[in-house]
Amino acid sequence: MGCSFAELAVDCKNPVLIARFWAEVFDYSVLSEEAGLVTIGPVETTDDYQGPVLTFAQVPEEKTIKNRIHIDVRPVDCTQDEEVARILGLGAKYAEVDSSEFTWIVLLDPEGNEFCVLSAQET
């Protein structure tokens, strides 16, 4: 017996803004949108597992500390630097973290949630 990773729920101040940012990052589409709650997922679905959907729920409190869980992304058909540039163009910012000793780059989404851009997969 087991389970599959179905959904990642993210608390945020502006679910529409954050959902649209992550939809652009992952080439996802908005699956549902209602007051204070937006869900995004793969643009095309098949019977094969496509990964989790992401749901963004509006909450009243501000983010106050480092995320305990964060998203890591890996470039698929470009270099890490090219992907970082693309994501910065979508509204991300560099985190104030010295990542010079790591192979990943730490960025912040438009609400300040940390995530990492990993190095491109070796082929």
Descriptive notes:
The chain has 123 residues and is of the alpha/beta class. The protein has two domains: 1-60, 2,3-Dihydroxybiphenyl 1,2-Dioxygenase, domain 1, CATH 3.10.180; 67-123, Signal recognition particle alu RNA binding heterodimer, srp9/1. Helix content is 18%, strand content 31%. It contains two helices and eight strands. Strands 1-4-3-2 form a four-stranded mixed beta sheet, with helices on one face.
CATH architectural designation of the largest domain: Roll
User: CATH class of the largest domain, anyone?
Assistant: Alpha Beta
Q: How many E strands? A: 8
Which series of helices and strands comes N to C? EHEEEEHEEE
* Number of separate domains: 2
The coarse silhouette is globular
Strands in their spatial order, largest beta sheet: 1-4-3-2
Radius of gyration: 15 Å
Largest sheet: 4 strands, mixed
